[in-house]
Amino acid sequence: MPFRSFVRLEIPDVILVEPVVFPDIRGGFFAELYKRTDFLAGGVPHDFVQVSLSKSRRGVVRGLHYQLKPMEQGKLVTVVKGRVVDVAVDVRRGGSPWFGKYVMVELSADNPSFSGYRQASPMLPSP
Q: pLDDT of 2-54, one tens digit each?
């Protein structure tokens, strides 16, 4: 399995994905970003149907992003340069015991990890 762990955070639908990072003699590393079979085995029960890339300058808050049923999407956030504080907020009304709660994780290019979830999520550059 090319992923070290799939860790459910305080909101169980928010999962920190830690890949195995293979050092590369060319001065970098190699890590798998997504592998459906491993994600399913790690408890991430959905496919990702869109891949996006954004770049922000220091101090930018990218905003809350979410979709309503039946158009909801799982999010997978990683960092290729620098670091960010990724926040997931549970905005599901009507029965979610975590409604209104949030979790934060710092993601960085030096320690590749991903956070995946279905809640509203701003991306905040790390101070």
A: 888 898 889 888 888 888 888 889 988 888 888 889 988 988 876 677 777 78
Q: Which two tokens stand for residue 53?
A: 């890339």
CA atoms within 13 A on the CB side of 1: 14
User: Residue 54: what residue type?
Assistant: S
Rounded Cα–Cα distance for residues 97 and 54 (Å): 32
Q: Which residue has the tokens 């549970």?
A: 90
Q: What sign does the CA torsion over 93, 85, 48, 1 have?
A: negative
Per-residue pLDDT tens digits for 42-97: 888 766 777 777 888 888 888 777 777 777 777 778 888 888 888 888 887 777 88
CA distances from 24 to 27, 31, 79 (A): 6, 10, 19
Q: Where are the alpha helices (DSSP H) in the chain?
A: 36-41
